[in-house]
Amino acid sequence: MTLPPFPPDLAAAPTVQVFGAALARFACQTVRAHGVQVWAVTGGALVVVGEEGRGLGLSDGTLAARALASGERQEEGMLVALPFGGGVLEFVGAEGSGVGALAGLLPLLTLALEGVQARETRRGRGRVSETVEQLVRRLGGSLDLAEVLTATAESAALALGFGRAFVALFSEVQGGRARTGEVFSYGFDSAFTGGVGVGPVSFGRLVERGEVILYDRSRDGASPMAAGLAELDPEVALIAPLRARGRPLGLLYVDSRSPGVRVSEDDTWLVLALAEQASLAIDNARLYGTETRKREAAEALREAGAALAGSLHLSDTLSRVLERATALFGADAAGVYELQPDGRTLSIRGALGLPGEYVLRVRAKVGGGVTGRAAQRREMVAARDLTAEGYGGSSRYTRALLARGEYPYRGVVSLPLGTRSGVFGVLTLYWTAPLPLDADDLALAEVFAGQASLAIENARLYEEELRREREAAVLLNVGRLLGEDQSDRALAEAARLATLALGAGRGLIALTGEDGAVIRCATYNLHAPGGAELASLAGQLGRGPRPLTRRHALPVAGSALIVPLRGGGEGEEVLGFLYADDPGTEPPSDRVLALSRSVADQMALTLTRERLLSALAREEARYRQLAEGAHDLILSADGAGLVTYANPAAVRLLGPLVGASLLTLPTPGTRPALHAAWEAARRHPAGGRAEIEVGPYRLEVRLSAVSGPAGGMLAVARDLSELQTLAAEIQRRGRALEAATSRQTELRTYLTLFTQAQEEERRRISRELHDDTAQVLIATSRRVARLARSLEGPGRERAQDILGDLDAAIESVRRFARNLRPSVLDDLGLLPALEWLAGQAGTDTRLEVSGQERRLAPAVELTVFRLVQEALANVDKHAGARSAAIRVAYAPDGVRVTVRDDGQGFTPDQAQARAQAGHLGLIGLRERVALAGGELELESEPGRGTAVVFALPG
């Protein structure tokens, strides 16, 4: 909202009444009200001191009193009351926007009213009143701060007749002390430098209590104040505070060096009155100066923004940022730090006024010093005096300079430069003196940093677009070059284009064969490497582009990159690789790696396409060869049905056909079927089918539409007479196969029954041997034993021999009976039977069991027992093993048994030879597993033993 101009006659009004009348006229015009009343506290009561317009009868003073008491705006119907200091503005029918605009001037109205009241209170004091009025007339409402300060100093010196005076504004107020900035003096021989300091005692009297300090050498010559004023060497001096709106502004000093000068009470009142009037003028001038400065800052920012927007190249944009920043803020030097890809360091991208060694050696750490803190916090960081505030340096070099006291700058401001992708870097401004910027300047600097960030973002986007265009041009040129020609010359030119695009010094393209060996190599600015060097580079290939260290790069290179050329087919066949290097040690950036991937993909795409075209030509030739040698009739026709190709089989059967119409073949009786198949093929992807007769031949024709702009039809015909002959032969062979299958089924059934009968016979014989023969032999052995006990001499010894023979016969019968059918299998189950087998084996054998143990079907347990028995017999006879193992794994749906040995093993050929020699153990195992509905696996390798694995349901 724009503030209306403050009328200068308000501050110069001699009385409260004149002030009220002028304010009423000004306020009525500003807010476009029907009427305005100005109320002021006079003699302890709130009275009207000025009015303008009509409708004032609506007010009785209640609303004005309420506004003055609350200190806030009050409204009631058409009335609005605005309090200011010791007065109130009351409007009748005012515009809201005008009231809002006038509210911004209330602080100035407060100061003006206080000044008028103060002058009116002291108006009867003659010289004081006259001096103040002279100062007011001399100022004439001036808003030039320097003029106001100079006029105040001169008026005070002349009015008191002291000869010297100065006015100084505070630049620092802190901890009960103050220090002034520039001093405006009158009557002094030389100008002040370095400002004036105010101690805590003087600060308390001047600023906190608003008193005038009187110094008289004859009285105060031994006081601390005398030491502070020793440089000025006054005989008498008056020091008055400058204050406005409750804030200390500075001080007014008047002195005389003439001996015998005396200061009266009127002199004190005169200095205080001048100070009060000067305070009002100073505050008005400072407010005006602030607004002016804001306008100038806005104009400067507009000009800076226009200048920065005039460039789309990053280097030029950074130069303009540095130039505008140093000019706008009066900096002695400036630098733009760019955040490096590691995200931890900042290096100087551009500088103005910084020493060359500083630019080369400084690499700031994020989070360290002023610059590093600004990058980390992403907000402005300012140091009034870097050498005293303990920020430290952001790099080792700056820390060393600070430690030696050689750092050239004191004031430092760092402003982060942000873009949409994150922090670009930091703009840092340097001053050799302490930081001269105030809060408004720092806010302006932040706005400028925002403009600079926007300009940098635009420049980066523009350069990124240019870079993409250049990269697209490189990709296009490489693709066109290799697409037209893949000779060594074209490959070398592609290597040159790729190397320059990557910003490298040397490069090469190597193509590999199916075995991965390099078969072709083209270089740029590089001697052709040897086979060992190319093989070493190929060994560094990964899935994508990767940087190479000096150890893995070619000789002389400081850094390098390598990227494979991968085809797009299944498995992504490696076609070769692209290599580029540079003498510098800086590794390739992410942008360069991304570009290398794009260039490699383009090369691989072109090479793959050319290889596919060559393969397509070869396949086309092969298919033509197949068509030429096919027994079926193959013809192609255009969209009108004219034959464009006929293979030799078609020509032999039907004669010359090229140029003739496929739809007019000599098929009078079956021509409608051919036409119907033609239409069906044109409508449906599955094509059409027809059986036609051409002379003595009966043909089955299949028609398929050919896709493409020209269309057409492909016809494949087969002589059904030959097909019928083949079908009859197939039926004959099928019947023979069915008979053989039936015979095999019968044999398997017979074998199953035979096996069952054999097992039953074994069980019967085993039982008879155990129950009959063994029992007879046992009874006989007992009778011989009794006989032996009754004999003496040789007869007894012979009986003992017979008894031993009988015991051996009994054991032999028992063993034979167990081998035929061990009773432990029927009585105790599979696992005890297998333990018995392991104990009976000639090879050291162990039994291992896993899973939930359970009884299986008797047939399954018997089959497992026989299979393990046969397998262990094979181990004992042929394996030559030191040990064997039986592993039984129970599963919910069956059992899996493994018999493994550590013997000599065998090959499939050796197993076949043993079978031909009559050793049918393995064949018997496989057949028995098949009869039980299971599966058998055999694992064997010479020198590594044999494993027989069979799984049976149960």
From TrEMBL:
Q: Which residues form the PAS domain?
A: 619-655
**Gene3D superfamilies named among the record's database cross-references:** 1.20.5.1930, 3.30.450.40, Histidine kinase-like ATPase, C-terminal domain (3.30.565.10), PAS domain (3.30.450.20)
Which keywords belong to this entry? Answer: ATP-binding, Kinase, Nucleotide-binding, Phosphoprotein, Transferase, Two-component regulatory system
Q: Which reaction does it catalyse?
A: ATP + protein L-histidine = ADP + protein N-phospho-L-histidine
Record the organism: Deinococcus terrestris
Does this entry carry the keyword Iron? no
Report the EC number(s), separated by commas if there are several.
2.7.13.3
Report domain Histidine kinase positions: 866-954
Per UniProt, what is one Pfam family of this protein? PAS_8
State the protein's name. histidine kinase
Report the domain of life of the source organism: Bacteria
Alphabetical list of SMART domains matching this protein: GAF, HATPase_c, PAS
Q: What class of enzyme is it?
A: transferase
Q: Name one GO cellular component term.
A: membrane
The entry lists its GO molecular-function terms as: ATP binding; phosphorelay sensor kinase activity; protein dimerization activity
